[in-house]
TrEMBL record:
The chain crosses the membrane at residues 12-33, 45-70, 90-114, 126-148, 154-177, 246-271, 291-310, 331-352, 386-405. The keyword Iron does not apply. It comes from Paenibacillus aceti. The gene is ylbJ. This is Sporulation integral membrane protein YlbJ. Keywords: Membrane, Transmembrane, Transmembrane helix. It comes from the Bacteria.
Length: 411
């Protein structure tokens, strides 16, 4: 059964990649000039948004995983994350990482934990799907300040993006994946034994148990600091190069395909379906009411595009992890984002009037407007600093909530 599923997965992946390769060749041959311009646009998006937003977190994540931080954190969070999301406690590191760094940082961290046999393949896949969020830099600076000329509206979109992601995760955990999550909780045995031991530990010994798990993880890794730093940088840059390649390919396909289509809603749909950066830019230029634009932007961010799915697959597939659940979660995330935006638009904008400026149509050429909307290096550095503090705050919040939940469950 598993072999048949693996064979079918490999066959579908082969067909998908072959189709993309053929379409790319057709696009380049049909319109080499626009293809070259679009590839430059994709390179700008990668260099000025993805690279500075993701690289530091990828390096930090791999070093912390080798140092045992997620494993130690999992000792504290395991009962809470199992009860709420049916995921191991190390998800307490994966989720804040995805919320602050954006995709595919969470998938890379989940794949690393799986390679170290700390989690199962199913848990790694669900972690990557649940913690798959767009980065705050993209939503606030690029979409809010750049596309819509209002960072407050970008912040509102970020809040809805997070809420809809949590709603999708809880819905799937307790409805669709309840049986599979329960059946996978018995693996791997070594991690489960450690969790059970830590659960029986009295509260004063909880931190001691977490530190012990960190020490064990460090001993299992065994790399020196210099070796670890070199491996982390090399792996992170390789991951980012793969991301950049996908972004260039999809920028070319979107630009060339839409050049053969009339300016209609269908052309906007193609962009949003394929790549989130260009897709949200296309949606932001639609001549419709502002609540509808915000809802469509939330849907595009929740779906995040076929390009992001392939980026995650490039990280998960080498580790032998599937991605079927990833697509399901993206669809539900996008649907929740659309509904929540329309439901919460009036109350949130009544409390937050600065998030609703007068809508201005975008009459500039796409390339010039896109370049103007991208953040400069000073803005990227400021966003990175805020994201780092946000990561620390989210981890502290996870720990606080988990400790409060432990105390209330004992009473």
């Amino acid at each position: 059964m598993h072999r048949e599923q693996a064979t079918n997965g490999k066959m579908s992946s082969t067909i998908l990649f072959a189709s993309i390769a053929i379409l790319l060749v057709i696009c380049i041959v049909a319109a080499p000039g626009p293809a070259f311009q679009a590839s430059g646009q994709g390179l700008s998006l990668w260099w000025r948004i993805v690279f500075p937003a993701v690289l530091p977190f990828l390096v930090l994540s791999e070093m912390l995983i080798a140092g045992g931080f997620p494993q130690g954190l999992g000792v504290i969070l395991e009962p809470f994350t199992r009860r709420i999301l049916r995921l191991p406690g190390s998800f307490g590191w994966i989720l804040p990482l995805g919320m602050t760094a954006g995709f595919p940082a969470s998938a890379a961290a989940a794949a690393t934990l799986y390679k170290q046999r700390k989690i199962t393949a199913l848990e790694a896949e669900r972690m990557a799907a649940t913690a798959h969020f767009a980065s705050p830099m993209l939503i606030i600076i690029v979409i809010g300040a750049g596309y819509l000329n209002n960072p407050d509206l970008g912040l509102l979109l970020l809040v809805i993006h997070w809420l809809s992601g949590f709603a999708a995760a809880i819905t799937l955990s307790h409805l669709l994946w309840k049986k599979t999550a329960d059946s996978s909780s018995s693996q791997p045995a070594q991690r489960q034994a450690a969790v059970q031991t830590s659960t029986r530990t009295a509260k004063p010994g909880l931190m001691r148990s977490a530190l012990r798990r960190m020490e064990e993880a460090q001993q299992e890794d065994g790399r020196s600091f210099g070796k670890l730093l070199g491996d982390s940088v090399a792996n992170s840059v390789q991951t980012l190069m793969t991301i950049g390649g996908y972004m260039l390919i999809f920028a070319v396909m979107i630009h060339v395909v839409n050049s053969f289509l009339p300016a209609s809603v269908f052309s906007y749909f193609i962009a949003a379906l394929m790549e989130v950066h260009l897709g949200t830019y296309a949606v932001a230029g639609l001549p419709v009411s502002q609540p509808i634009i915000a809802a469509l932007l939330g849907t595009a961010l929740g779906w995040s595009g076929i390009c992001s799915f392939l980026q995650v697959q490039a990280v998960l597939k080498p580790a032998g992890i599937s991605g079927v659940r990833f697509i399901i979660q993206r669809l539900i995330h996008g649907a929740y984002a659309f509904l929540l935006t329309l439901i919460l638009w009036r109350p949130l904008t009544a409390i937050w009037p600065d998030a609703v400026p007068a809508y201005k149509e975008m009459n500039h050429p796409l390339a010039a407007r896109m370049e103007a909307a991208l953040p400069n290096w000073q803005q990227a550095a400021g966003s990175l600093r805020i994201s780092m503090w946000l990561l620390i705050a989210l981890i502290a919040l996870w720990i606080t909530i988990s400790l409060i939940w432990r105390r209330s469950s004992r009473q």
